[in-house]
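Consider the tokenized backbone below.
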């Protein structure tokens, strides 16, 4: 998870941002999704998806302006074309290594960074089911502001009553802090980081290193390791290793650890796991995985630990600013 004025990164709620510039600090801008706070989680104990350290998205100075946010001030929606072009150009300028080039090709194979950024928002249903503890199922509907690292989730299913969000600076949850199995700040943007692969790897603050190719299920893949610059989000010590098809450049899997300080207060991280990206779906020209099952990993794939379904993906829908505001009685926190 990462946190900054815009992506985990502390950004605002109701800040009125100005247009991003190419000279912005790379740790506070974003070529795509939310930063820190929106990273996937994975407390080993809870078998949750690894806390993906999200690259920082854009800082307050790089958030979309009021004109592009219809309905309620501070809302989110489709982004003006010139803003998108500027962000895409900045991302291209960072392609300076073999690993970055492979990831850029993968992003293009999944529909392209320009299309992704132009949508401004993503909404989806995320059904996370740990096999060793069915009671810890996390079944929610997420709405995410791609340019400000803000996200809100509503729990689904029988007896569900949790409603929580991260607004770039603070997290809140109703009806109480124990209403959901994992902390609101951690989970609010966690599903989004996994769903948003490989687009999120275009964010500033992400270091991409090509590793030796490796086989998985008898097929060879390009491997690229993503690490994060110091201060990038809440958990800069996380890493991801993506498996990319050398012919189609589609994402097939990723290995990851979680080093989120909220779970590992004295340092350290979770055991490495591997997530398989299967059952592809195309929405508005962008390719996503409909299935994200996770397995143990120790130099080879082990037992399955989690089954995840991603459904009903919507892009470019307007999210009113009021959606990110804590309702009366919500438990609010700025702690990890």
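A designed sequence for it:
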């Amino acid at each position: 998870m990462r946190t900054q004025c815009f992506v985990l990164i502390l950004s605002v709620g109701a800040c009125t941002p100005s247009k991003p510039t190419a000279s912005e600090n790379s740790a506070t801008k974003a070529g795509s999704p939310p930063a820190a706070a929106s990273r996937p989680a994975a407390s080993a104990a809870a078998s949750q998806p690894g806390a993906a350290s999200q690259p920082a998205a854009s800082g307050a100075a790089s958030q979309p302006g009021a004109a592009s946010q219809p309905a309620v001030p501070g809302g989110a929606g489709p982004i003006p074309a010139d803003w998108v072009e500027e962000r895409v150009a900045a991302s291209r300028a960072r392609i300076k290594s073999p690993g970055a080039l492979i990831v850029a090709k993968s992003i293009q194979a999944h529909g392209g960074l320009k299309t992704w950024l132009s949508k401004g928002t993503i909404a989806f249903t995320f059904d996370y089911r740990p096999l060793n503890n069915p009671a810890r199922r996390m079944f929610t509907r997420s709405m995410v502001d791609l340019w400000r690292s803000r996200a809100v989730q509503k729990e689904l299913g029988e007896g569900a009553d949790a409603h929580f969000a991260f607004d770039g600076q603070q997290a809140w949850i109703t009806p109480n802090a124990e209403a959901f199995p994992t902390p609101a700040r951690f989970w609010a943007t966690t599903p989004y980081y996994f769903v948003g692969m490989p687009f999120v790897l275009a964010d500033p603050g992400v270091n991409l290193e090509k590793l030796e190719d490796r086989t998985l299920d008898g097929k060879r893949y390009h491997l690229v390791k993503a690490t994060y610059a110091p201060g990038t989000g809440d958990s800069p010590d996380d890493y991801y290793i993506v498996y990319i098809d050398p012919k189609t450049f589609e994402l097939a899997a990723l290995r990851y650890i979680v080093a989120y300080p909220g779970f590992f207060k004295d340092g350290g991280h979770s055991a490495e796991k591997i997530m398989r990206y299967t059952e592809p779906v195309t929405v508005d020209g962008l390719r996503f995985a409909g299935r994200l099952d996770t397995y143990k990993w120790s130099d080879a794939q082990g037992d399955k630990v989690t089954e995840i379904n991603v459904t009903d993906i919507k892009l470019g829908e307007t999210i009113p600013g009021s959606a990110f505001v804590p309702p009366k009685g919500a438990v609010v926190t700025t702690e990890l």
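The chain has five helices and 13 strands.
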